C-alpha cells in the first residue's frame, strides 16, 4: 500500500527540492537545442465509454485509449506533448521518473510545478530526456485520475543493450486497477471518512482483468510468442495502491533494469513491483508445449503489506506459443489452467525480501554507479526551498 505514501513523498520532494536545487545544480546540455530531435505527441484528455466486469462507465482516458498511448522515444530526444483537456475537470500529466533537468515546470504534478490544465485548455510539456534509458510511465497527476489515465514511456538507449540476448520483441505489461464505481466517488468517500479507499474490483494487465473475474473471459491478455525466442517484458505497475507479485508459469524471468536503470542481471521465478515502479525482464520461450495447449498463465496478485482491507484478487493473462501449423487452438473458453506454482503467496515476505536483496546496479564502465562514498561536509550545497506564489 505504498501508492499514496509514494505520491505524497513525491510531492514533498518536489516542494522542497525540485524547484530549488534542480534548477541550479545541473549544467546546460552541451549540444545546442536545434540539433536535438524533437518528438511531438498530442494527448487529448477525454471520456470514453468502457465496459469491464459487466459494468459500463465513462472512463477518463487519453485519446480514448485504455491504457493510454505508449510514448516511444530515443535517449536524448526533446519531447513535446501537447495536452488538450476536453473534460469538465482539471487535469495534468506527470512523466513519472523522468529527470526534468532545468525543466521542472514540465514535470506535471498539479499545484506543485504547474496550475492544473482547465477545461478546454491546452498545455505543452517540453522536456529533453538526457542520460536516461529504459521503461518509465506517464500518468495523470490530479486527484485520482491516474486510476485510468496512464501509459508506458519507453526510452530506447543510444548504446546497445548491456545484455547479449537478442530481443525478438518489446512487450509492455502494464498493471492497473479497475473500480466498478466512479473513482472520484471512491476518493471523495475516503477523504470524507478518513479511512482507506474502497478496494478496487479487479487488477488488470494492459487494461484487461482476465478470466478469474466475472464477465471477463473476453477481456484477457493473450501474448503470442515464438518458441526459442527471447522477449523483453517492460513491466509497469500503474496500480494505485498495491505492491504486486508477477510470475509466468514454467518460465523464469531475468531482471535487467528497474526504473530505467540497468541492473546486474539475475534470474528469478517471480518479481515484486511497487506502484509507480517499472521492471524490465528477459523471458525466453524455452518450453516445449508438445501436445499441450501451448498456453502458459501469467499472473499478478498483491503482496500483502496492510492491515486495512485491500483488493486480494488475481489478474491473469496467457503467454501463447505459436503453433507450427498456424491453426488457432486456444480461443476462449480456455483450456483448464491453474495459477503458476511459482507465483508467491500474498504473505510471502521472505520472497519479497530475497528479491529486493538481489538488486544491484550494473556498475559497468559504460554505466558506472557514481554513488558518493564519503560524506561531504556542507560545502557548496545550497538548499533553496521555494513556495509557489502563483495563485491557480
Ligand atoms: C480547476 O482549477 C482551478 C484552479 O485551481 C479552480 O479554480 C477550479 O475550481 C478547478 N475546476 C474544477 C472543475 O475542479
Ligand atoms: C521547448 O524547449 C526548448 C528548449 O528548452 C526551446 O528551445 C523550444 O522553443 C521549446 N519549444 C516549445 C514549443 O515550447
Ligand atoms: C464503498 O464500499 C461500501 C461497502 O461495500 C459501499 O456501501 C459504498 O457504496 C462504496 N462506495 C463507493 C463510492 O463505491
Ligand atoms: C509447468 O510446470 C508444472 C509444475 O509447476 C508442471 O506440472 C507442468 O507439467 C508444466 N507444464 C508444462 C506445459 O510444461
Ligand atoms: C479476500 O478478502 C475477502 C474479504 O476481505 C475474503 O473474504 C477472502 O477470503 C480473501 N481471499 C483471499 C484469497 O485471501
UniProtKB/TrEMBL annotation:
<feature type="transmembrane region" description="Helical">
    <location>
        <begin position="12"/>
        <end position="29"/>
    </location>
</feature>
<dbReference type="GO" id="GO:0052716">
    <property type="term" value="F:hydroquinone:oxygen oxidoreductase activity"/>
</dbReference>
<dbReference type="InterPro" id="IPR001117">
    <property type="entry name" value="Cu-oxidase_2nd"/>
</dbReference>
<keyword id="KW-0677">Repeat</keyword>
<keyword id="KW-0560">Oxidoreductase</keyword>
<keyword id="KW-0472">Membrane</keyword>
<dbReference type="InterPro" id="IPR034288">
    <property type="entry name" value="CuRO_1_LCC"/>
</dbReference>
<dbReference type="InterPro" id="IPR011707">
    <property type="entry name" value="Cu-oxidase-like_N"/>
</dbReference>
<keyword id="KW-0812">Transmembrane</keyword>
<keyword id="KW-0052">Apoplast</keyword>
<dbReference type="GO" id="GO:0046872">
    <property type="term" value="F:metal ion binding"/>
</dbReference>
<feature type="domain" description="Plastocyanin-like">
    <location>
        <begin position="44"/>
        <end position="158"/>
    </location>
</feature>
<feature type="domain" description="Plastocyanin-like">
    <location>
        <begin position="171"/>
        <end position="322"/>
    </location>
</feature>
<keyword id="KW-0964">Secreted</keyword>
<dbReference type="Pfam" id="PF07732">
    <property type="entry name" value="Cu-oxidase_3"/>
</dbReference>
<protein>
    <recommendedName>
        <fullName>laccase</fullName>
        <ecNumber>1.10.3.2</ecNumber>
    </recommendedName>
</protein>
<dbReference type="GO" id="GO:0048046">
    <property type="term" value="C:apoplast"/>
</dbReference>
<keyword id="KW-0439">Lignin degradation</keyword>
<dbReference type="Pfam" id="PF00394">
    <property type="entry name" value="Cu-oxidase"/>
</dbReference>
<dbReference type="InterPro" id="IPR045087">
    <property type="entry name" value="Cu-oxidase_fam"/>
</dbReference>
<comment type="similarity">
    <text>Belongs to the multicopper oxidase family.</text>
</comment>
<dbReference type="GO" id="GO:0046274">
    <property type="term" value="P:lignin catabolic process"/>
</dbReference>
<keyword id="KW-0479">Metal-binding</keyword>
<dbReference type="InterPro" id="IPR008972">
    <property type="entry name" value="Cupredoxin"/>
</dbReference>
<dbReference type="InterPro" id="IPR034285">
    <property type="entry name" value="CuRO_2_LCC"/>
</dbReference>
<keyword id="KW-1133">Transmembrane helix</keyword>
<keyword id="KW-0186">Copper</keyword>
Amino acid at each position: 500500500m505504498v501508492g499514496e505514501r509514494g505520491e505524497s513523498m513525491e510531492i514533498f520532494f518536489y516542494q522542497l527540492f525540485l524547484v530549488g536545487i534542480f534548477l541550479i545544480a545541473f549544467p546546460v546540455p552541451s549540444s545546442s537545442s536545434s540539433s536535438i530531435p524533437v518528438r511531438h505527441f498530442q494527448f487529448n484528455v477525454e471520456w470514453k465509454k468502457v465496459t469491464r466486469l459487466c459494468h459500463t462507465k465513462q472512463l477518463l482516458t487519453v485519446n480514448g485509449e485504455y491504457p493510454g498511448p505508449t510514448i516511444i522515444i530515443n535517449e536524448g530526444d526533446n519531447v513535446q506533448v501537447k495536452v488538450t483537456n476536453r473534460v469538465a475537470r482539471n487535469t495534468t500529466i506527470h512523466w513519472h521518473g523522468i529527470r526534468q533537468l532545468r525543466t521542472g515546470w514540465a514535470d506535471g504534478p498539479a499545484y506543485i510545478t504547474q496550475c492544473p490544465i482547465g477545461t478546454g485548455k491546452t498545455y505543452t510539456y517540453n522536456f529533453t530526456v538526457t542520460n536516461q534509458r529504459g521503461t518509465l510511465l506517464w500518468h495523470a497527476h490530479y486527484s485520482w485520475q491516474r486510476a485510468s489515465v496512464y501509459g508506458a514511456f519507453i526510452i530506447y538507449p543510444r548504446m546497445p543493450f548491456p545484455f547479449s540476448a537478442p530481443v525478438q520483441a518489446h512487450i509492455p505489461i502494464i498493471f492497473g486497477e479497475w473500480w466498478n464505481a466512479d473513482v472520484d466517488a471512491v476518493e471523495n468517500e475516503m477523504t470524507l471518512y478518513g479511512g482507506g479507499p474502497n478496494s478496487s474490483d479487479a487488477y488488470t494487465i494492459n487494461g484487461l482483468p482476465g478470466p478469474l473475474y466475472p464477465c471477463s473471459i473476453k477481456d484477457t491478455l493473450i501474448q503470442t510468442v515464438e518458441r526459442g525466442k527471447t522477449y523483453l517484458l517492460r513491466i509497469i505497475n500503474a496500480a494505485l495502491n498495491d505492491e504486486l507479485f508477477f510470475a509466468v508459469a514454467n518460465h523464469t524471468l531475468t531482471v535487467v533494469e528497474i526504473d530505467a536503470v540497468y541492473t546486474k542481471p539475475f534470474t528469478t521465478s517471480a518479481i515484486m513491483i511497487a506502484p509507480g515502479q517499472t521492471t524490465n525482464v528477459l523471458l525466453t520461450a524455452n518450453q516445449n508445449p508438445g501436445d499441450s495447449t501451448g498456453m502458459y498463465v501469467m499472473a499478478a496478485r498483491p503482496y500483502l503489506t496492510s492491515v486495512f482491507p485491500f483488493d486480494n484478487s488475481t489478474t491473469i493473462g496467457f503467454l501463447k506459443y505459436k503453433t507450427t501449423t498456424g491453426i488457432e487452438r486456444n480461443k476462449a473458453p480456455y483450456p483448464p489452467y491453474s495459477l503458476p506454482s511459482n507465483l508467491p503467496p500474498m504473505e510471502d515476505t521472505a520472497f519479497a525480501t530475497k528479491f529486493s536483496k538481489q538488486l544491484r546496479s550494473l556498475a559497468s564502465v559504460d554505466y558506472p554507479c557514481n554513488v558518493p562514498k564519503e560524506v561531504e561536509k556542507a560545502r557548496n550545497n545550497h538548499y533553496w526551498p521555494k513556495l509557489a506564489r502563483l495563485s491557480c
